[in-house]
Amino acid sequence: MKALVAALFLVPCLAFAQAAAETPIRVSLDARGEDVREVLATLFAQAKKPYALDASIKGKLYVKLDAMPYEKALAVVLAQTGLKVKDREGVVMISPAKVSVAVAPKPVAVKTAASLPIVSAKPLNEKAILARKVTTKLIKAPLADVFASFGKQAKIEIEIDSSVPAYRIDAFFTKSSLRYSLDQVCKAAGLRYEFVDNKIQIVSGSLGH
């Protein structure tokens, strides 16, 4: 009988203890421009929590909370102060949250055509160009083909004036200088050549070189 009475007495005690354990810790804050460290100290004192504050924490806080659960109250304070929380072996650690700062790209100076320096074309070394060697074995070939072959081998653009007749000639040269080859063809066709705008131009008229 005594055991039954003890058991009946124990059941409500256990229920009361469980209800007490589930009751959330509540805190109240009324800060009007107080140092945020003092506000946090008050919060943790009411919640009976061990804590540590980073030495760099500073600022003032305006907040009023009435009987709010500890976790929510802490979240409110952290959100207003830009702080973060971390639990380390039961101790609540508070420190500033790292803020990523976007670095603006350096402006790139874009040069317009007006701002670009004027670079004059490097003058050709006519003597060196005319000394280059060419080889052709063409039979009754259009003048345009002959001069195109000369230009390709001597690495120089050769332009034929529209006044030049569409002659066909035989052109046999073996490792001859460009000067000699041009002289022979122009002499045979009654033409002349000259350097104009970094290229060789073939025109009608007697040979002037």
CATH architecture of the largest domain: 3-Layer(bab) Sandwich
Going across the major beta sheet, what is the strand order?
2-5-4
Low-confidence stretches: 1-11
Number of helices: 6
CATH topology of the largest domain: Phage tail protein beta-alpha-beta fold
Number of strands: 10
In angstroms, what is the radius of gyration? 49 Å
Q: Helix amount, in percent?
A: 25-40%
**What coarse outline follows from CA principal-axis ratios?**
rod-shaped
Number of domains: 2
Order of helices and strands: HEHEEHEEHEHEEHEE
CATH class of the largest domain: Alpha Beta
Average pLDDT taken over every residue: 82
Beta-strand content: 25-35%
Main beta sheet: strand number and arrangement? 3 strands, mixed
Description:
By secondary structure, this protein is α/β, with parallel strands linked by helices. It folds into two domains: 24-96, Phage tail protein beta-alpha-beta fold (3-Layer(bab) Sandwich); 126-204, 3-Layer(bab) Sandwich (Phage tail protein beta-alpha-beta fold), CATH 3.55.50.30. It has helices spanning 2-22, 36-47, 70-81, 126-130, 143-154, 178-189; strands at residues 26-35, 51-53, 60-69, 83-88, 91-96, 133-142, 158-160, 168-177, 191-196, 199-204. The strands form four sheets. The chain has a three-stranded mixed beta sheet with strand order 2-5-4, with helices on one face. The chain has a three-stranded mixed beta sheet with strand order 7-10-9, with helices on one face. Strand 9 and strand 10 form a beta hairpin. The longest helix is centred in the N-terminal third of the chain and has 21 residues, at 2-22.
